[in-house]
Write a structure and sequence with these properties.
With about 200 residues, this protein is mainly α. Helix content is about 70%, strand content about 0%.
């Protein structure tokens, strides 16, 4: 073994650092996040971390964006589904027994909780929530357009209730008070009530 390490391009280095940040936040919280711990987890120098993100605030903002993008990739529905089927897929995919999904959920919950006491995180949490609500509202509207969701459903307010439900269930799911199957069942029940089938 030569001991040489493969050189990563800039995008891959940033992804490595953001993944390490998620790992640290999921286990120590936002308040417990230290740049040195992220650098150690990623096996890089703190100088590299500051080079890419400028400071701790920049790292946190980039991490929230990364969490949103990563959630978008694992909740993306396959082609050919109705809007309602796509909506169900998006919501159920928030509860998967994988480290990636659990870390994502933990980081998201940490950001929301810490933003209560840290005004510097308000805008980050608000923007991420707005993006998620908008994505879900778009899917509901798509379901109305294809007839799989009733026309009387208000996409914006319904999306807000459904995402709030997922956030609440997520806390219980992460702590083991709610199993994945039960979380899925609750999502299905809520979807039946919030988004009745189109006529």
């Amino acid at each position: 073994m030569s001991g040489t390490r493969t050189r990563l391009n800039t995008a891959d280095r940033k992804t490595l650092l953001l993944r390490a940040t998620c790992h640290v936040i999921a286990r120590r919280g936002v308040r417990g996040l230290r740049v040195e711990d992220v650098a150690a987890k990623a096996e890089v120098s703190t100088t590299l971390l500051y080079y890419h993100f400028t400071n701790r605030a920049g790292l946190l903002a980039a991490t929230m964006e990364y969490v949103n993008d990563r959630a978008g990739s694992y909740t993306a529905a396959p082609a050919g589904l109705t809007g309602r089927q796509q909506l169900l897929h998006q919501l159920l995919a928030e509860f998967q027994d994988t480290d990636e999904v659990r870390d994502n959920s933990a980081v998201w919950n940490e950001f929301r909780a810490t933003a209560v006491f840290d005004p510097s995180l308000h805008d980050i949490a608000k923007a991420a929530t707005g993006t998620w609500n908008a994505d879900i509202a778009d899917t509901i509207a798509r379901g109305q357009a294809d007839g799989s969701i009733g026309s009387g459903v208000d996409p914006g307010s319904t999306a807000e209730r459904l995402t709030a439900l997922v956030e609440g269930l997520s806390n219980r799911w992460l702590t083991g008070m709610l199993g994945t199957d039960r979380a899925h069942q609750q999502v299905r029940t809520a979807l039946d009530k919030e988004c009745p089938l189109g006529s």
